[in-house]
């Protein structure tokens, strides 16, 4: 009785195995066909930019820019005597005096904008940590306040 069932099972399994090689394709062929007939996975480009996630990304990027710049400057300042470079205030001021004014203003605006935006948005996050303005309207209001304060501070730090 059991032998008959095993024989039936073998026969069915063998039948399935015989059918498989004809229908099974290599994975690369299946993947290529899938790419032809299916869209690529969604990406950020399909979403409409919203203030909350744009400002979050900018906050992180400005933090990397400001923090990375500070670390690079500190490392250069610390290693300068070892390689014979002069990074004293007089030497840096003299070097910056040779930079064309538009390029110097652009560099000042980049540093001032990054620093002011990251600082004001950090204050915004501290404000949220107290439980205030954590509504949709509060997020927009504080976002516009950060943008306005950053633009004003960037202009002031760049030109004065």
UniProtKB/TrEMBL annotation:
GO terms for biological process: mitochondrial electron transport, succinate to ubiquinone; tricarboxylic acid cycle. GO terms for molecular function: electron transfer activity; metal ion binding. The keyword Transmembrane helix applies. The chain crosses the membrane at residues 61-80, 92-117, 138-159. It is found in: Membrane. Keywords: Heme, Iron, Membrane, Metal-binding, Transmembrane, Transmembrane helix. The keyword Transferase does not apply. Pfam families: Sdh_cyt. It is a multi-pass membrane protein. Residues 1-21 have a biased composition (Basic and acidic residues). Residues 1-24 are annotated as: Disordered. This is Cytochrome b subunit of succinate dehydrogenase, Sdh3p. It comes from Coemansia javaensis. The gene is SDH3.
